[in-house]
Design goal:
heterotetramer, A: 393 residues, alpha+beta, Cytochrome-c3 Hydrogenase, chain B, 3-stranded antiparallel beta sheet, 16 helices, B: 429 residues, mainly alpha, 2 domains, 0% strand, globular
């Protein structure tokens, strides 16, 4: 095996290999099994263009190094040359599987900066769509994660059901993926006729489907063996690394921004924060499954109590927030999605900084996979639920 | 020369034993063609069945319900550019798929489709099968090495270790079945035909012999054979999410298709071993219990009825095709296919009726032979379906878990079963 | 055509034996030296089986099975030594194995 | 089973065995050598079949070609062969070795030529269909009686066990 080790040590990777200590001279006791391999950027299990450099001893992982930036588009820089409203669609291109959540965070941040509040009906619509989006995001995660671990079939089931959500999005705002659903100050579109009926129908449709996914996986012996005690991270470690979202909650920390700092209309709904115990891959799976059910609960309450009224607050035609800065964060499907916006009083933001949950959570990869096997790296990358569009921005 | 051809037809032994070279060659050709067709059918079936498990349609465009898809795929693969990586070991890269293919096809010389429907009845039949199929792993290991690339090498080493480990449990399970062959006569046999015949003599399939024992041994074999063929959930060697495609990552075109051909041929071969050892090989259900001529006749109708069933399904499919003119050619094609199946069904039924009366006539012999082959193929087909079902249902094991199961679970159990079988066998006789 | 007798087999076996000896004596790569030993053992096996047929009893065949067992043990231990050695010296050439201890 | 075209098969198999035997000791690349050795082993297996020794044939196939050679291939892949392929193939004393081997060959030839009359020209047709059972009789004994080689067989299994332990101890980094 060692005959094949030397071809990755070009200048790029040796710069990147800081924590793999490639530079240390050969030990007196030669280890013939040590090898460095590149996983990605073109690899079926890295969910896009993530490159993970693995230092292996046989199949055991000694260390990892994530090389990111293959999908970098300079979204934050673009913001400095766009007006606040013009920048809104760009946000959707970050976490493209949870575009609605992204838009919500940005709109609310700018609203806070402008000191306006969206009308209640708009908030309810926002909650419904965001939670639908959370389910869609978790479904996509479940399908790809199961596929990584080798179960092909759940992928098709989740995509079938995700399609129903995308249909609702399409009917509401004309786009399936990059929705641009919300505007600063509320929503641009009133719900279409039959929106509530369709959402209710979706609720009754998808609940048994979630049971179906669980029937395939939750008690499956192979699934248990592949996920239990794999990629463990303790609560303290998770907090120290800034991990948020389901990954943090699976470690037993009951931290959900929807409860901790309620935004939109979340304070009006009754739901629970599912948490795990061990912080392993299986717990993260269970937490996300439970979250899908909780999202259904929230949507049900929201649809039943949706108030009448305007959907747009009074917002000036030209958005010129006062000089100042704001940090606003929401609970996106993947974790805490924060926007830090600095305004210089002009029509364009002076600086926008996004705190993407995937990017921060990806930091925990190395901690999670050390000492595990290559196959576990795949499972752990899947379980962190990264979207490279968001990591690289 | 015609007498040379005809003289064998009345014989009840394999052409290999009869020393009839003409028929031995014919059998080899028939089996080669049959296996190739079976692999194509399996390819289509796997894609269709997997698709329906996963709420998709699978191939629908090439031919009615994608029936011609395997042929289209084969042509595509043959016309594809054959890429050999620059730093690969050219000769070894070239020869590796052939090793696997040769090993996969050589085992068919001893598979008994009937008491005389085999190329040869080797005295060491089952050992020969296991030995030759263990050569297939050489092709995989060498292919991974010759590619001169990380992922193929890891895949090759994985599958090499995996196949060697599971061969142990598999061999012990086989031994406990072979032990059972010696129960009535005192001497056991390794001959594939002899194993089926001893099941007939003891009037029990070995899966039901000493009830849990035979079943456990069969179960171990059934698990080990999935690992042997690198299929899900043990498809570590070609785990696409981990190793892109494992040992054949660098292969393309015809050479890649040879790997696939070898894999499917091996699947059929190991299923045949399982059928021969535990499921009574070519025997129809209850050959000793329901052995009146009436029952013989009823069971001899099965092949014809099966084809009739298939023909009916094809006809229903024809009728349900959309009326659009776009589908006209497909409709005609499916109708012709259905008619062909119906014709075959008719032919088989006619043979069944004709072969009913006279005992030594050619028709009777023919009828008998068709029955043997039919039941054998049917049992193997069940295994083939199971392979697909497993693949659709289960996630993939991790490599160390796979090894742990192989060495720490399967090996002790199969050893225990072997010992207990021996003790029970001694006590009974 | 001359019928094939024991003598023919002996000649083939002798040729394989000598090839094995040449390999053992001249090659530097330990793996190939071990393979040459396998060649020698095979030549011996061929002799045993040929004689077994000549005398019409099976003792030669049984003996060849024992030789095969021996070959398996030898390969396992030999390759084990080889790997342990490779870890320490990073070479698999026989003529560089010239220290009694390190 | 009546043998077919025996001399032809013999010459083809013998030629293959010797030719690939030459390849084993001359190839620079160890994997090529291993592949050549597999061909030799398979040809010798074919010769066993011609000698009416099907069980030995199966053992050869199973243990040698399937097991031992896989082990060899594994080890070749684990150790560095890129470097050794650029080095000298033969050691410095190769002429001496060659001379010694040639002397051995000469000895064999002279023994064969002188002793040709000692070998009876007969080939007994061993019963092939009961070959396995008879070998089993020698190894394990007939019912009620211990076999001639039972003790040796047990010793051989002990040898294998020791070999397994030795190999594990030597290759394991930490025990």
């Amino acid at each position: 095996m060692s005959s094949h080790t030397n071809d990755t040590t070009n200048d790029v990777s040796s710069r990147a290999l800081s924590n793999l200590d490639l530079e240390t001279p050969a030990k007196p006791y030669l280890d013939s099994n040590e090898l460095i391999i590149n996983m990605g950027p073109q690899h079926p299990a890295t969910h896009g263009v993530l490159r993970v450099i693995l230092k292996l001893d046989g199949e055991k992982v000694l260390g990892t190094e994530c090389v990111i930036g293959y999908l970098h588009r300079g979204v934050e820089k673009i913001a400095e040359n766009r007006t606040y409203a013009m920048f809104n669609p760009y946000i959707d291109r970050m976490d493209y599987v949870a575009a609605v959540s992204n838009g919500l965070g940005y709109c609310e941040a700018v609203e806070k900066l402008l000191n306006v509040e969206a009308p209640r009906r708009a908030k309810y619509i926002r909650v419904i769509l965001t939670e639908l989006n959370r389910i869609a995001s978790h479904q996509l995660w479940l399908g790809t994660h199961a596929l990584d671990i080798g179960a092909m079939t759940p992928l098709f089931y989740t995509f079938r059901d995700r399609e129903e959500i995308l249909k609702i999005f399409e009917k509401y705002c004309g786009a399936r993926l990059t929705t641009h659903a919300f505007r600063i100050g509320g929503c641009q579109y009133e719900t279409y006729a039959g929106f509530e009926k369709e959402v209710k129908h979706f609720l009754t449709y998808v609940a048994p489907k979630i049971d179906e996914y669980e029937a395939l996986l939750t008690t499956n012996r192979i699934w248990l063996e592949r996920t239990k005690n794999v990629g463990m991270i303790s609560a303290a470690d998770a907090i120290a690394l800034g991990v948020t979202g389901p990954v943090l909650r699976a470690s037993g920390v009951q931290w959900d921004l929807r409860k901790a700092q309620p935004y939109a209309a979340y304070s009006e709904f009754d739901f629970e924060i599912p948490t795990g115990e061990n912080g392993d891959t299986y717990d993260r799976y269970l937490v996300r499954m439970a979250e899908m059910r909780q999202s259904l609960r929230i949507i049900e309450q929201a649809v039943n109590r949706i108030p009448e009224g305007p959907i747009m607050a009074k917002v000036p035609k030209v958005i010129k927030p006062p000089v100042g800065e704001i940090y606003h964060s929401i609970e996106a499907p993947k974790g805490e999605l924060g926007y830090f916006i600095v305004s210089d009083g002009s029509t364009q933001p002076y600086r926008v900084r996004v705190r993407p949950p995937s990017f921060v959570n990806l930091q925990a990869l190395d901690r999670m996979v050390r000492g595990l096997l290559v196959a576990d790296v795949i499972a752990v990358i899947g379980t962190i639920d990264i979207v490279l569009g968001e990591v690289d921005r | 020369m015609p007498s040379f051809i005809m003289s064998y037809l009345g014989s009840t032994v394999t052409p290999g034993e009869a020393g009839n070279q003409f028929w031995a060659l014919m059998y080899v050709l028939i089996i080669f063609a049959g296996v190739s067709v079976a692999v194509m059918a399996m390819n289509w079936l796997e894609r269709k069945a997997l698709a329906h498990f996963q709420i998709r349609l699978g191939p629908m465009r090439v031919g009615p319900h994608g029936l011609l898809q395997p042929i289209a795929d084969a042509i595509k693969l043959m016309l594809k550019e054959d890429i050999i990586p620059a730093n690969a070991d050219q000769f070894v890269f070239w020869v590796a798929p052939l090793i696997g293919l040769l090993a996969a096809f050589t085992v068919y010389t001893v598979i008994p489709f009937g008491p005389s429907q085999a190329v040869s009845d080797m005295n060491i039949g089952i050992l020969f099968m296991l030995g030759v199929s263990s050569l297939g792993v050489l092709g995989i290991v060498v292919a991974g090495w010759a590619s001169n690339s990380h992922y193929p090498l890891i895949g090759a080493l994985r599958s090499g270790a995996q196949m060697v480990s599971y061969e142990v449990a598999m061999g012990l399970a086989v031994v406990s079945a072979i032990l059972m062959t010696s129960l009535k006569t005192g001497t056991g046999t390794l001959s594939m035909i002899g194993i089926v015949q001893s099941q007939q003599q003891q009037s029990v399939w070995f899966i039901f012999k000493f009830f849990p024992l035979g079943f456990i041994a069969f179960g171990i074999f059934a698990i080990a054979m999935i690992a042997e063929t690198n299929r899900a959930p043990f498809d570590m060697a070609e785990a696409e999410s981990e190793l892109t495609a494992g040992y054949h990552t660098e292969y393309s075109g015809l050479r890649w298709s040879l790997f696939m051909l070898a894999e499917y041929a091996t699947m059929i071969a190991v299923s045949s071993i399982a059928v021969t050892l535990w499921l009574g090989g070519w025997m129809r259900p209850f050959p000793n219990l329901l052995h009146a001529p009436m029952w013989d006749f009823i069971f001899s109708l099965f092949p014809g009825l099966t084809f009739l069933c298939l023909a009916t399904i094809a006809f229903i499919g024809t009728a349900r095709m959309p009326a659009h003119s776009f589908f006209r050619i497909q409709r005609i094609g499916l109708a012709v296919f259905a008619a062909l199946l119906g014709f075959l069904a008719l032919l088989l039924l006619v043979i069944a009726v004709a072969g009913r009366s006279a005992d030594a006539s050619l028709a009777a012999r023919f009828n008998e032979g068709i029955g043997y082959v039919y039941w054998f193929v049917l049992k193997v087909a069940v295994f083939m379906y199971l392979f697909i079902w497993y693949r659709a249902t289960w996630p993939r094991y991790r490599f160390d878990q796979l090894m742990r199961i192989g060495w720490k679970v399967m090996l002790p159990i199969s050893l225990g079963v072997l010992v207990v079988t021996a003790i029970v066998g001694v006590l009974v006789s | 055509m001359v019928p094939i007798t024991t003598f023919h087999y002996l000649v083939v076996a002798a040729a394989l034996f000598v090839l094995g000896v040449i390999g053992v004596l001249t090659r530097r790569n330990v793996v190939i030296v071990l393979m040459s030993i396998e060649l020698i053992l095979n030549a011996v096996n061929l002799n045993l089986v040929a004689f077994s047929r000549m005398w019409g009893n099976l003792h030669g065949q049984v003996f060849s099975i024992f030789v095969t067992v021996d070959a398996a043990a030898e390969a396992a231990v030999g390759l084990g030594i080889l790997i342990a050695f490779f870890r320490n010296k990073e070479t698999i050439n026989v003529d560089e194995i010239d220290l009694l201890k390190w | 089973m009546a043998p077919v075209a025996t001399p032809w098969f013999f010459y083809v198999l013998a030629g293959l065995a010797v030719a690939s035997g030459v390849a084993v000791i001359t190839r620079r690349n160890a994997v090529h050598s291993a592949l050549a050795l597999i061909v030799t082993l398979l040809s010798v297996a074919g010769l066993y079949l011609m000698l009416y020794a099907p069980f030995v044939f199966a053992v050869q196939l199973f243990v040698y070609a399937g097991g031992i050679m896989l082990l060899f291939l594994f080890v070749i892949m684990l150790v560095n062969i890129e470097r050794s392929s650029k080095e000298r193939r033969f050691n410095r004393m190769w002429p001496a070795g060659l001379v010694a081997a040639c002397a051995l060959m000469a000895l064999f030839i002279s023994a064969f030529v002188k002793g040709r009359t000692l070998f009876p020209d007969r080939m007994i047709l061993l019963p092939e269909s009961s070959n396995t059972q008879q070998i089993a009789g020698l190894l394990y004994g007939e019912p009620g009686r211990i076999g001639q080689y039972t003790f040796a067989f047990e010793i051989a299994s002990l040898l294998l066990l020791v070999a397994i332990l030795g190999a594990v101890i030597m290759t394991k980094k930490k025990i």
